[in-house]
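Might I ask for a little of your time on a matter of protein folding? What I wish to show you is a protein chain and, alongside it, a tokenised description of its three-dimensional fold. I should value your view on which stretches of the chain appear to form regular backbone elements. You will find the record immediately after this paragraph:
***
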Amino acid sequence: MKNKLKIITSIFCILLMAATLASCAKKEKLPSPAVTTPEISFEERLSALAPYTPPEELERYWGGAVGEFIPSDDYGRVYPYIGQVQEISQDEDSYYEDKDYWYTGSLLYGFVDEKGRIICDPVYKEAELLTYENKNAYIMHKIAYPQGIVYDEGITWIIDEQYSVISAYGSFAGIYEDVYTGDFFNRKSYEYIAVKKDGLWGAIDYDGTEILPCQYFNAPLFSEGLAAVFENSNFEHNYGTYNYSLDTYYYINPDGDNVLGPFLGPSHFPRLDILAFSHGRALSFDSDFYGFIDTYGNLVIPKIYTNNIYDTDGTKGYHENSLAIVCIMEEDGYGFNFNDALWGLIDVNGKYIVPLRKATSVIQEGDYYSFYYDNRESYESSEKEIFNYTDGKITIINEKSKETLNAWHGRCLDGDIFITDSGIINIKTNEVYYNGEIPPFSHEAVFQLDDGRSCIIGYKYGSNAPKFGVMDKNGPILDFEYDALKWVGGYFCAAQGDHGGLLRPDGTWFVKVKFEKLD
């Protein structure tokens, strides 16, 4: 009987194996199904993200509260984050309906290390990253009044400001009276960082090493190994009477040696930031006129152009693409005649790339130049021509016209792609990349994500306050739902509702903290 059962069991196993093999053979003969990836909208991607639950308290590198950045070689890369907000009490006539509305200037920044541990509590009111080649340093602005101050009666004056230079890897933190970062529309990093102590300027490198002691009356801005500085005795003499026309300046090297000069400054207030060298050329003035010198101090382009520093973006020397905007104006009994000004573009040898033509201003954005033709008396809408300079060739994008690209904002998103009132378009081909609702954009610089995409932070107004988002050429990549966004060194410092922190480019939080209620 046992032998029969063994035989039956063996036969059953053999039949089962045969059936399995046959089934497999049939499956192998079936064609593989086509793999398709369903299109997922931006909103669906957002809703698919797992909700973030912040821990009860973020881990700290240090045990207690830290009101200053303490340098350490052990942090790795460090990042600023938004960690607190100061309440603003609005009056009844406020534009915003929400009387407790806070604005981005009331946010406070702290620091975390690359593991997300707090190494400095939120005590800074501004955060900026200076970058030169592969060097990076944060410039943090701190105010002296305590956290929790409420602006509900008049104006509270800030009396003790500090600027900290913090290396990107946290190994240096220096405190200064001021740090030069350029004006609001022209942020630029130089070879060294200009810092101010006891009312005078010097320079450090991006790791905090002192290059020049603080002994100059102006910020030494090094470009191509040289920086323009005032002759201190002359500047001190004239400063009290606001007579800047006779101020002389020299070019120094990183050792502080005078290597070029002296030169006379422009007749207007001498903004020495416009005297930086670029492509071996720097502006050189003779009263109301200017030309260009080389790095040996030789005048290589004569002083025939008119100093128009307060009227346009001109008189700033050579751009990265090796062109300079120039202007010639005639004098009348009241000074220079702006209505008959002639504008053009020259190369480093003084050759005209765009010949002089009558215009009222020239605005540059990247490799694009808009020549505007305003009626200064009636202030009618501008006619303009747009030129592009690429690979040593100048191309006209549109003829002189009021209609073509009249709504062009002049904010370059990437290469030939610009933001206009009608969408994001290629201004060479008129191809529309995105024609959805375009909010008014802030003046944040265009930046690049790690994958190479060029993006811009913009905002649009809701019922009470602006909401910030991020766009590339195809439209939003971060929807307009944040109360604050600032791109600083690979992450967004972000605020949303009653939370702040550090946002990854994909919209997930790296660090998220809840704002404390301030009385």
Residues 60 and 117 are 5 Å apart (CA to CA). DSSP finds three helices and 37 strands in the chain. The first helix runs from residue 2 to 29. The first strand starts at residue 79 and ends at 85.
